[in-house]
Write a structure and sequence with these properties.
- The structure is a single chain.
- The protein is of the alpha/beta class.
- The protein is built from twelve helices and twelve strands.
- It has helices at 16-23, 27-34, 42-54, 82-96, 113-122, 143-150, 174-187, 203-220, 224-228, 238-250, 261-273, 307-326; strands spanning 70-75, 100-105, 127-131, 155-158, 169-172, 193-197, 231-233, 255-258, 283-288, 301-304, 337-340, 343-345.
- The strands form two sheets. Strands 2-1-3-4-5-11 form a six-stranded parallel β-sheet, with helices on both faces. Strands 7-6-8-9-10-12 form a six-stranded mixed β-sheet, with helices on both faces.
- The termini are far apart.
- Residues 1-9 have low confidence and may be disordered.
């Protein structure tokens, strides 16, 4: 028996007090939601339904809404924790609008983005959210998105901008992220700062390089050529960060800015293999601030990607486009990019430079 509910009961009766407490609403409000009464804000209703799910109660039949349609979410992979973080918020936001999310994950040797889109179209999806997809790759053919649009499928693209694609984009300010990381290290007295970033063909990588080069010019008067000598392009992974660190440490860098948190963990690993203390002898800054990064050793200083705001905005843009098409309204010119400002989160992987 736990909280008045017998664990062996497969369909426990919901206790109103428990549901209200979990949802942080009054029992009267919880009762109105559970009885399908009007006069409750959509956000409050969602909290009560979420409380039912968290507490393990089945929703009453009258509360099971008919889905407004399927929406595909195409992401590169799940090993980098920033992608599941985006996926969770996007799926919650879609569910709040009445849509059923369909998660499609790419993996080496598995289905390509084009194949996943084809499968989603076969299932009659209402729209698609692309996260860090081919739209971010400057070598990829953008006409695939024009064809998708011509078939009447609304979509929105996160992380990566291409002016040839007629759709809404949502991105963090990658250039600003690199600049604030460099300035942080410069304020700590670091004079030789390197950048470990992903492949040059990706738009986020290019933007981080631009911000990095500009910051080195502003802080130390370095020319573009001089600044670019401190850039290492590699994979967005622990192994990629490890490989980039070897060259940057050989170059005498005492501070390294990274294009992802996983890369930063790879830099820390490479430094320790050389017997270097972080942050005593090397300061490291990541990018993303996924959920567990505060608990690394040392806790990672990083530039936080505004995941909640970006994911919510992306869903909002998609829903607006879906409604416009459904109601036959002329859609305004797309190709608009919504830029969100990142935030520097200082923890234990950065410290003063030592002679």
């Amino acid at each position: 028996m736990v909280g008045g509910v017998t664990l062996s009961d497969p369909h426990p009766t919901p206790r109103l007090a428990d549901i209200a407490a979990q949802a942080q609403v009054s029992e009267a409000t919880a009762s109105r939601v559970l009885n399908g009464k009007a006069g409750v804000a959509a956000g409050t209703r969602q909290r009560v339904l979420a409380a039912l799910d968290v507490l393990g109660y089945e929703r009453p039949v009258r509360l099971r809404r008919r889905s407004a349609g399927l929406v595909g979410l195409v992401i590169p992979e799940l090993t980098n924790p920033i992608f599941p973080a985006f996926a969770q918020i996007i799926e919650q936001s879609l569910a709040g609008h009445g849509y059923t999310p369909v998660l499609c994950t790419q993996m080496p040797g598995g289905a390509t983005e084009d194949e996943l889109v084809e499968q989603l179209e076969e299932r009659g999806v209402t729209g698609i959210v692309f996260l860090s997809g081919l739209h971010a790759d400057t070598r990829a053919d953008p006409s695939r998105y024009a064809r998708l649009s011509s078939r009447g499928v609304p979509f929105v693209l996160i992380n990566g901008y291409n002016p040839q694609i007629d759709a809404p984009f949502v991105s963090p300010d990658d250039g600003a992220a690199a600049r604030m990381a460099v300035r942080h290290l410069a304020e700590l007295g670091h004079r030789r700062i390197g950048l470990a970033v992903g492949p040059a063909r990706y738009v986020p990588s290019r933007r981080k390089v631009e911000g990095f080069v500009a910051a080195l010019g502003e802080s130390f008067g370095l020319s573009r050529g001089q600044a670019e000598r401190h850039v290492q392009h590699t994979l967005f992974s622990v192994e990629g960060g490890d490989a980039a660190a070897a060259a940057l440490l050989d170059d005498g860098c005492t501070g390294i800015v990274c294009g992802s948190d996983l890369m930063a963990l790879g830099v820390v690993r490479a430094a320790r293999r050389r017997g270097l203390d972080v942050p005593g002898q090397l300061s490291v800054v990541g990018f993303d601030d996924s959920q567990l990064i505060a608990f690394t050793d040392p806790p990672l200083t990083t530039v936080r990607q505004p995941v909640q705001a970006m994911a919510t905005a992306a869903v909002g843009a998609l829903i607006e486009e879906i409604h416009d098409r459904t109601q036959g309204r002329a859609t305004p010119p797309q190709g608009t990019e919504f830029i969100f400002q990142p935030e520097l989160v200082v923890r234990g992987s950065t410290g003063p430079a030592h002679p």
